[in-house]
Structure formats: C-alpha cells, structure tokens
Design a protein that fits this description.
Helix content is about 5%, strand content about 40%. Strands 1, 2, 5, 7 and 8 form a 5-stranded antiparallel β-sheet that branches. Strands 4-3-6 form a 3-stranded antiparallel β-sheet, with no helix packed on it. The N and C termini lie close together (about 5 Å). About 5% of the residues have low confidence. It holds the Pfam family COLFI. GO terms for molecular function: extracellular matrix structural constituent. Keywords: Collagen, Secreted.
Length: about 130
C-alpha cells in the first residue's frame, strides 16, 4: 500500500508559493524514501478565461521545484481557452520518478507575458511513495 504526504498550502497570489507537507518531517520523508522504489504526485492547473476573451492566449512556461531544491521540472501551459462544455479548463501534470529525492514538489512558478485576463490556480495532490 502506498504511503502519502499531502500538501497543506493552497495557492493564492497574495501568499508565498512555498509548499509544506503537514505531518511529513524530514525524518519521515527519509524513511519513506528508504522503503520505496517509486514516487508519484499530481498537480492540476485550472483556469477560467475572461468572457470577452475570444482569442487563444499564448503558452506560459511553468517550473516545478523538486524537493532537493537543486532540480526543477519545466513544462508549457496552453493558453486558457473557453470551450463548449465548461467555463474552466484543467491541465493535469503527473510526476512519476524513481529518483525519490525529487518529490514532493516544493515550489512552482508561472512565467507569462503580463496576461491578466483570466483567473487561474493550482491544486497540488499528495505525494505517494510505493
């Protein structure tokens, strides 16, 4: 059965974007890593475009800081576009690694061109060691 450590910080633009995992001390994370082969974690990016926004927005770059704080993952986010089924667009990032020092994620940053026409947020899932 996988063991998990869940993040306690939800993102807000007014707060620092540092993730902390309640109940997962450095000693406990070390123990999980010693007894595991694989670590996984999901992050969901949700955005809601402005109603008057008709054109697709440019891609944005996102970086996820690894637990080691020496490496990061980089990805591109598609522009936030209103579709016919929902007013919210979700993108799911799934991290799976045998290099256990990379998870849990500790921070993230979104780089964009000053586009402020839509609302967005992240939901960071628990890290699972197995």
């Amino acid at each position: 059965r996988p063991l998990q450590a869940a993040p306690t910080t939800r993102f807000s633009l007014s707060l620092p974007l540092q993730l902390e995992y309640a109940g997962a001390s450095p000693v406990q994370l070390r123990f999980l890593r010693l007894h595991s082969r694989l670590a996984t974690q999901k992050v969901s990016y949700s955005c809601r475009p402005a109603p008057e926004q008709g054109q697709p927005q440019p891609e944005k770059e996102i970086r996820f800081l690894a637990d080691s704080r020496e490496q990061s993952y980089a990805a591109s986010l598609q522009g936030c576009v209103l579709d016919n089924e929902s007013s919210i667009t979700d993108t799911i990032f799934q991290f799976t690694t045998e290099e256990l020092s990379l998870l849990p994620l500790r921070d993230l940053a979104v780089f964009h061109n000053g586009d402020t026409l839509h609302q967005f947020g992240f939901t960071v899932g628990p890290v699972c060691f197995s």
